[in-house]
Records
---
Amino acid sequence: MKKITATIITLNEAENIRDCIASVLPVCDEIIVVDSGSEDETVAIAESMGARVFHQSYLGDGPQKDFGVQFARNDWILSIDADERLEDDAVRAIDGLELENTDADAFAFRRRNYVGRHWIRAAGFYPDEVVRLYNRQKCRYLSKKKHSRVEARKIKHLSAHIQHLTYRDYAHWIERINQLSSRDAWAMYEDGRCVRPLTPFFRSIWAMFRKLILKGGIFQGKDGFTVAITTAFHVYFKYLKFLELQEKQHEINSQEESD
């Protein structure tokens, strides 16, 4: 077993956390879970599997994923989401690494994204390379509050896989778009950004063009169009919700000025 600390952020992940932890146990000698207020059995399950659980209100994607690193005993960190699992080839790849001698700062994996049992490969959903194993002395997650990533100079790309149970079914995909668009709107608002009324329209059109044309979704059948349409839908409502937050704040400011 390697001297690697797995870090996992959670919120109501009782149905996922057990399998997630089980997948990293063969290569990690420490598991850290950062929970942001789960109301289900997430924390109890994680602790029963030997994880150290720390409680932290959600700080945004990058800061939340970086939060648990300060408690790690090891310099090598494996960051994995609760709805992800290391596949067997990833376990073998990590097991074969000589981390004490490598000149790499971080390692990237190929991620397979699923809707139920259906593997979505279209419009950039595969190989979807993600940096997840990194040396905290040399790199860390960007402080971005949405869609953060590990910033590293020397990244080695492994032909090994992380399985991502992205959505239970297509209905869940729509539910998650609603949840994630709200979270992303909040993150942009917290970052002090400002958008114009037509931004949702132009951004969503660009998102669909990128997925259909630049990522080749137009040639990839149902999956290609599904990815393009849902991406545009997500982007449109993310910016629409952001405008709503802006308008509410403007009303508050106007009220305070009139008082």
---
Amino acid sequence: MTDLAAPPPAVDPLHLPDLWETTPGVVTYVNHGAFGRVPLTVRAERQSWQDLIDANPMDFFRRRAADELDRSRLVIARFLGSDDQGVALTQNTTTGIAIVLASLSLAPGDRILVTDHIYGAVRWNVDLAARRTGAVVDEVAVPLAANDDEAVEAILAGVREGTKYALLDHISSSTAKLFPIERIVAALHERDVKVIVDAAHAPGSVPVNLGTLGADYWAGNIHKWAGAPRGTAGLYANPESRADLKPIPLSWREPEGFPNSFSLVGTVDQTAWLAAPAGLEFFEKLGWEAVRKYNNTLARTGQLLIAEAIGASLEGMPGEDVDEYPLPMRLIPLDGVPADEAACTALTNRLAEEYLIECPVTPWNGRALLRICAQLYNSAACYERVADALEDLL
């Protein structure tokens, strides 16, 4: 166990709730990681694009859209440490991974390696690819408390003859676990296994450098921790794999190939992509390192506060054996709550409806887990409210 982290100062210059919308009726929102919340300045930027397009849609879509979308895409690609042709834009991480899975040359008996931390909708896409091609899905267990060495060892133990691909989280969703993804990618490549990275929670919450990561495919949301409007994600492929990726449906820019072929896919509202650079700029002005430190410290403070209030042991939770766990998401086990979907959903809904708190409870491997997040609009008082509500409910 680590020493208790000191709470952030009562008045911290990075506690900036006024820069986000205060939603009537939602008093305590500690679930930023689920869908993100968009800073007011970024919402205004998106609205300005919508106004411009509505003034003359013909001019925008026929004469300006391609260049403007390319500009945003390049900003995002460079933020992610990719070469300029390495990242396409898509709606979300699940969409990006579904596109990758649809492009793979799988044959009966080929094996896809995943872990028990995989996101539910992504697992469904993996299963669909397996049914379509006759491939086999191998799931390996990685304990919540596994350190980096143990996580690498558990994943490599799942490699067997016929393993062609591994689809792995950088940061898992329901279990808020940070995987040593660089080490895992390198170790799997040594075994001739190609790696698809689900990085839904990575951009913004941790530094990302696709140029050094070396993954074969990577998809990550820009709308969770990097300030973009919802519906913005990056899809990366290494140079050898780019020609294989096709958007669904094909776009008017199909002859240009990846990544440009992913823009102008039908007549859709892509102003979230156009406003995404404003989200990156929002956090860059505050300083990414300072933002991450505030959020990570606050998430740890909230975890300790809630656990103490309800008498929960944090033993075995991710990050308990390191001094500074670099994630703005933390878990608190609720061992008195049945670990099934119905009970966890009921508790999540009671928190929202009776206490005006948005904080998810999910079942995972026989335990009910409360996941809290921290963003600059949160303060220690948010987690005190969660603790008070759970004391009443539990």
---
Amino acid sequence: MDRRSFLKLMVAGPSGLILGVKPGTAMAGELESLADPVGVLVDASRCIACLKCEGACAAINSLPTPDHSKEATDKNREMTDKAYTVVNKYKTKTGKRVNVKTQCMHCAKPGCASACPVGAFEKTKEGAVLWHTQCFGCRYCMVACPFDVPKFEYQTPVPEIKKCTFCYEKRVSKGLEPACVSVCPVGALKFGKRSELVKEAHERIKQNPGVYVDKVFGEEEVGGTCWIYLSPVDFGEIGFKADMGTRDIPSFGKPFMKTVHAIDFVVPPVLLGMGWIVRRRQRKSENHTEE
């Protein structure tokens, strides 16, 4: 074991050693923003709700074929353990319909990873947030995610946490755009370096007065996300939380996590010491009885 791996395990504390935290996964103390991850710009003014992105997502992830019947798509749908992305249609105050695709936002500093006590989440160098199988089902990630993304397989004997993977293994890690982006026929989804996408988003707002609200959602929300959005109406009208703030989720738990790690290092030696004292007294008592 090299020095870096050892330090990661020590950061996880004795509990991490016991639970088998996977070296290399993102721990709460190392969730720093990447220099320039990849991302996707979603332009809600362009989306026509063709739902091809849903089909592509299902195909590449071996998920059930999405239900695209009128009954299903006329109502707002949520992501599930069998649907990593959905497109919903919103009727706004002006009467204009706006279509919005949602999926994991792949936060720069993900709350799901910071809340996981066994390091089951990984923040890759490209920006994707991935889940690994050392999970033991606490579901803290579901509570910590500000976008309600991680989904638990309640109906499965050996349940897992399911969510959008950014097509990391099959596409993004190989320099390809996510499957959903590759099939969009109207350019509502654009893949690239996040910094360049943010610049382009602001440029679109500047060059098209009246088309977009003057805001890029995800640029600063909860510390920034790899998926960012443009909208022709206020984001609160199309299902986004308007009061998320810019503070990243892990920062709320850092003081507590430091205390937990301190306890990890203090309590085991104390318990070992107490055990040694008890055993020593027992041996003395036994020796005295034999005499």
---
Amino acid sequence: MVNTDDHPAYRVPLKEYKAHAVVNHSRKEFKRREPDGTLASVNYAESFFSLMRRGITGAFHHISREHLPKYADEFAFRWNTRKLTDGERFQTAIAMVDGKRLKYRNTIAK
């Protein structure tokens, strides 16, 4: 299931998906319960991208194409742990980095 708003650009690229639910923002529709019981909404996606935009303009200011996946992973972690306390989030992050090392360059120049 793919959920989008009513922008026409989504129609053609998503027509091959099994299910495509559209919420009509222009008619003030932001979520809808489908007949099969699923929820059609893009609120979570919009909230996630809002969090990411605020992080870019507020803290990072510039994100290179090369490191974009790392920034996206960081914001996904923040989003997925948004209901945890700061201490719980810290413990979760520490557990994820155990035994890993982030290198700026893959190889050291000789």
